[in-house]
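Bug report (template v2)

What were you trying to do?
Predict the complex of my protein with pyridoxal-5'-phosphate.

What happened?
Run completed; filing so the output is reviewed.

Input:
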Amino acid sequence: MSEPITQSFDFATRAVRAGTERSQFNEHSEALFLTSSFVFDSCAQAAARFSGAEPGNVYSRFTNPTVTMFEQRLASLEGAEDCLATASGMAAIMATCLATLRAGDHVVCAANVFGATIQLFSNLLSRFDIAVSYVDATDANAWRAASTPRTRLLYCETPSNPLMEIVDLRAFGNFGREIGALSVVDNCFCTPALQRPFEFGVDVVIHSATKYLDGQGRVLGGAVLGTKAFIREQLLPVLRSSGPSLSAFNAWVLLKGLETLEIRMRAQGTSAQVLAKWLEQRPEVARVYFPGLESHPQAALARSQQSHGGAVVAFEVKADPSSQRSRAWKIIDSVRTMSITANLGDTRSTITHPATTTHGRLSHADRSRAGITDALIRIAVGLESVEDLKRDLAQALAAH
Ligand SMILES: *Cc1c(COP(=O)(O)O)cnc(C)c1O
């Protein structure tokens, strides 16, 4: 009989073993249960399962054993009481909003969050009479100034995309408790391998599992983590009746992703640190944004929350304002090893021009307020040799 994998085990052990539940065949790797429903011995059992009087699977929109294994493993890694998986990161954010907010409520959100998150808050929630205010997330007073008696939800990412601003998670969680609002952190960039927001008193953690949890650019997935009461009593009824469920196949791929999460994050983060330092020395580069650099304005706060700087590096190239875009595009188009794509968190390095892609739908004024210039380039560092990446960037920076 194997020992149950409790929180007393180290992260690396939990990443490969937590949540595993074997079938009667005693398979070593997790089984993939591709089934939409589950059969009952009798009408009485069906009724008991439906009512919840008897635990067990009913239908894969609510529970599926492969999905449950992924949820339990991720909960163990984040140090959460409970977790529910969703079809994508956006589905996780939407379900959290549906579980928390009603007409007339108010959300305070960091100004620098994922573009689709802003679309969801500004364009969709507004249709249901839910208001949102955006704040400079690095300014604790800004959260307070923006909140109202109807504020029910506080939302941030740290580090932020693409300028790597750090939110003080302890202050964020404390402020949520003080005003009775749910504090929600999208932990996409760090993953639990680097940063565990529950240790700082935050209420809910969101994941786009599409990024580093999969880690190999294969499937979409998401997750919401929090207390058992929030997950089972508030979130599960929303997911059960609205249906953005994670497929069992994707859960199985994500279980395999979690097994290598820590070693990928360490290797990609080590390369990102090297690349960020190298970029800082380059004459073509005006500024580097990376929380692992001493030059980062919040380097000490970053060190107190995350075990390293992560694997995403952004930098501005030197250029006249009128030629910033063509200069950045020339460099990106000259890169040969990295992929030009907006995704991140892959084993293959990706390179992006945020001003015309991920943040292209913002107005010019919103973009400059967010500090995203046409000279900015974002790299999500993969598992290639960092020497090859440096050589590639050196020739791209030299291209004119
Ligand atoms: C990609 C991303 C999301 C959305 O996740 P999907 O899985 O693409 O729906 C949310 N937050 C952050 C920070 C992301 O990078």
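What did the reviewer find?
The mean pLDDT is 96. The longest strand covers residues 151-157.
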